[in-house]
Amino acid sequence: MKQYLRSLTSRTVGLCALFILFSLSSIHSFAQDNSVAREWNDVVLEAIRNDFARPTVHSRNLFHSSILMYDSWAIYDEEADTYFLGKTLGEFECLFEGISEPPNIQAAQEEAMSYAAYRLILSRFADSPPCRRDLLLCQSIDAKPGVHHFSCLNRLL
Question: Dihedral through CA 113, CA 115, CA 117, CA 120, nearest 10?
Fold first, then answer.
């Protein structure tokens, strides 16, 4: 009976170890393949964590960052329809006459999403207590290959 329990325990431990290794490798590979939108969402969430506790303001910040990045992506997609860009919502009108098609659509989408998120972070979190740390996060995203640099640190330093 004891040998059976030892065998069962060692199998269970072995299976658990394999599961943990598989999970960690999956998380690691997933983290390396994040989209530009995901990277900027992480920066916005980190800025919110570091800011004053203002739940309604931050829910609006998340909504606006989502709209900005979606519309920035949608203007280069033939089938997508923008949410706000080129439309009127309530009393707010956002004029847009279109944009010429770039040679590399994905790069243009990523640049537009990055610029939109960057400008939102600069605007909404400029007076945040740890603003410089949030801008370092911007710099880390800007430094990635294929993402254009917006020199977010130079504006405050």
Answer: -140
How confident is the model over 43-63, as pLDDT tens digits?
Answer: 888 888 888 888 999 999 999
Strand blocks (E) in 13-157 = 88-89, 92-93
Distance, CA of 147 to CA of 106 (rounded, Å): 11
Please tell me the distance from the alpha carbon of residue 56 to that of residue 81, in angstroms, as a whole number.
Answer: 27
Handedness of CA 72, 76, 80, 83 (dihedral sign): positive
CB 137 within 8 A of CB 43: yes
Alpha helical stretches, state H, the chain: 2-32, 36-50, 55-74, 105-124, 131-142
Query: What are the backbone dihedrals phi and psi of residue 93, each rounded to the nearest 5 degrees, phi first?
Result: -120, 135
Give me the residue spans of the domains in the chain.
1-33, 35-142
Nearest to 105 by CA among 113, 97, 96: 113
Tokens of 105: 């659509």
Using 50, 70 and 90 to split pLDDT, how confident is the model at 29? very low
CA–CA dist 145, 134 (Å, integer)? 20
pTM, entire model: 0.66
